[in-house]
Amino acid sequence: MTRIHTLQALRAIAALLVLAFHLFVGTPTGFHPGTVGVDIFFVISGFIITRIVGRPDVRIADFVRSRLARIVPIYWLMTVAALLLWAVFPAAVPGTLADLRNIALSLAFVPHAVPPGFNSPVLLQGWTLNYEMGFYLTATSCLAVAWRYRRLALGAYLLGTALIAMYLNWFNVLVSPLSIEFAIGAGLALAEPWITTVASRWLWWLLWGAGGAILAAEVVFPIPDYGMTTLLHAGVGLLMVLGALLAENRSPARLIRGLGAIGDASYALYLSHLLVIMPLGIAIASWPLGLRLPALAVAAVGIAMLIHRHVEAPLHRKCDAILGQCGAILARIWARG
Q1: Mean pLDDT score of the chain, rounded to an integer?
Q2: CA within 20 to 30 Å of 207's CA: 99, 154, 336, 337, which one?
């Protein structure tokens, strides 16, 4: 499948927005618009997975293997890192509930209730991966449909469940208002053949500028209603991802390459940044805010890039190979039976 470099750059922007949100927690102003990074990730995921699902050569086993190898190993490793950090420095990971039930359900991507004041799952930002896994489960079921109709079936399901969830106020990993963001990504994947024919060299700037203007307005005029915030951020996700698709081969190559390097490490950055900025923030708490926040940001990005290069990428390749071998063995056993 063709790699879209501007989407990797947008992954970097999304991860940096989430990082900014957490960096500004506890400051006088905060940075609530940073949460839109999660919404952008969901729209990107909806686009990428719908593209994959629509390929005639994709098998269920291969899809499941690729998703598990991509998402699970580094998430489990970062969850263990959070528990180890809590064991030696509890103040750096407040709200950690290190009981077997919470740990097991967190590792299994199962949403669950915990006592007030504690995190669920163990790795706080892992809640988004519960929804991601729910989306993958839906996408896997759509692979049973004839390949010509898979994308349409997936998009229709996501849009339908999002509207039902909004109307009935349901909120779970399979039926949630957040499905509208995966549905937007699916819609962009369906429209990709037409999007790529747009000749404008500057439209992507306008779309990204509009998204940035909405976030800037949110800083000045916060929106207290969660439902309205979800819809607004879904709209920003649409503008940013559509802009990224239009910007491919039309954007400054040096800028895209620089952001793309962070984009490649965006998953590692998303999972690891709290484990970096929390203990380090305590260590340098006496520094002026204008010096402390940039230092924490640089440390989080630098460590994430090291984790991606030396841990995440090798672990991904190894687990993908192991799962592939296991799948081949099971296929042979099934054929003999």
Answers
A1: 90
A2: 154
The tokens for 251 are 């954007």
The dihedral over CA atoms of 163, 164, 170, 174, expressed in degrees to the nearest 10, equals -80
Q: How many CB atoms lie within 10 A of CB 170?
A: 13
Is residue 97 within 8 Å of residue 284, measured between CB atoms? no
Is the bond into 90 cis (omega within 30 degrees of 0)? no
Contact 123, 271 (CB under 8 A): yes
Predicted local confidence at residue 93, as pLDDT: 87
Summarize pLDDT for 196-207 with one digit per residue, the tens: 888 677 888 999
Closest among 217, 235, 280 to 42, alpha carbons compared: 235
Burial 96-129 (b: 16+ CB within 10 A, else e): bbeeeebbebbbebeeeebeeeebbbbbbbbbbb
**Amino acid sitting at position 149:** Y
Spatial CA neighbour of 265 closest among 319, 311, 296: 311
Total-model pTM: 0.94
Where along the chain do its domains lie?
Answer: 5-328
Please give the Cα distance from 203 to 247 (Å, whole number): 8
Pick the residue with more confidence: 330 or 232? 232
Q: pLDDT of 39-63, one tens digit each? A: 999 999 999 999 999 999 999 999 9
Q: Can you tell me the distance from the alpha carbon of 196 to that of 246, in angstroms, rounded to the nearest whole number?
A: 7
CB contact at 8 A, 38 and 18: yes
In this structure, of 26-30, 40-44, 279-283, the range with the lowest mean pLDDT score is 26-30
